[in-house]
Structures are given as structure tokens and as C-alpha cells.
Amino acid sequence: MPATETFRIPKHRRHVPTARRQVRKALANRGVTDQLADSVTLLANELVTNAVTHCRTSCAQVEVKLSLHEAQLMLEVSDPDRDRLPRLHDSAPDEEGGRGLVLVAALADEWGCWQGPYTKCVWALFALGEAESARTPSTL
């Protein structure tokens, strides 16, 4: 059975650092450190920033979920703007944004998105190396 930690933040840019700190703390508490923790934290930051920037639902909350199952770590970021799925695109060199999903695709082993009845979710999957699997307790 997967071990999961879930938290929510208000949909506002000022709460993105809070989400980043909570992800980092959850990972550290479970022995996920070093480059993997850096990658997961960076992608959590990108996905939460995308959610608070692009979600058009007022007074919304963004949900961040970390799940650990066997040798995989899943990061999921959900928001209630279910009709606007993100898509990967090429950004011009002079564009200020638009590279978040490129970063997700580069750092995660797999990624994607899905629509629920009231939400959308963007997820990133990371394979745990032997060192992380050995250090990581079965609860997150």
C-alpha cells in the first residue's frame, strides 16, 4: 500500500515557498535527499507555480500529494480548473515563461496530467535508486 502525504495551499503566489518547504521537509523526513530531493522540490515548485498562475477558479486551493510506493515516488499537483490541461510547447528564447513542463519532462522519469470531475492533476513520477529505496521508510 502506498504511503502518502497530502497538503493544500491557497491559490496565491505568496504560498508557493510554503509548498516548496513542505515538500522538502516531507522528503527529508523519509530519507529522500540529495539530487532526487532537489529535482522533486524543483518540480513541485514549477507545478504549484503553474497551478496558482493559470487556475481561473477564484478562492481555490492547490493540492500537493507525494506518494511513495515500492521504488517509485509520485508528485501530484491538483487544482480545480479542470478544463485547462497544460501542454508542452517550445518557448522562444525571449519569452519569460513557458519552460516549466520542459523541466518536468527532463527531470521526471514520467509525467502527465488527468482530469477528474472537479479537478485537474499534473503528475511526475520518479524512480528511486537503490540508495534511496534502502533509506526510505515505507511511510511518507
Please explain how this structure is put together.
- With 140 residues, this protein is an alpha+beta fold.
- 35% of the residues lie in helices and 28% in strands.
- The protein is built from four helices and five strands, in the order E-H-H-E-E-H-E-E-H.
- Strands 1-2-3-5-4 form a five-stranded antiparallel β-sheet, with helices on one face.
- Helix 1 runs antiparallel to helix 2 and helix 2 (34-54) packs antiparallel against helix 3 (100-107).
- It starts with a strand and ends in a 5-residue tail after the last helix.
Could you give a short description of this structure?
This protein is an alpha+beta fold and 140 residues long.
Oligomer: single chain
Q: Give the distance, in angstroms, between the N- and C-terminal Cα atoms.
A: 11 Å
**Biggest sheet layout:** 5 strands, antiparallel
Helix count equals 4
Helix content: 25-40%
CATH topology call = Heat Shock Protein 90
The whole-number mean of residue pLDDT values reads 87
Strand percent estimate? 25-35%
Strand order of the largest sheet: 1-2-3-5-4
Q: Tell me the name of the CATH class.
A: Alpha Beta
Stretches where pLDDT is under 50 for at least 5 consecutive residues are none
**CATH architectural group:** 2-Layer Sandwich
The succession of helices and strands, N to C, reads: EHHEEHEEH
- Count of the separate structural domains: 1
Structural class: alpha+beta
The CATH homologous superfamily corresponds to Histidine kinase-like ATPase, C-terminal domain
Principal-axis shape: globular
Total strand segments: 5
Question: Rounded to an integer, what's the Rg over CA atoms?
Answer: 15 Å
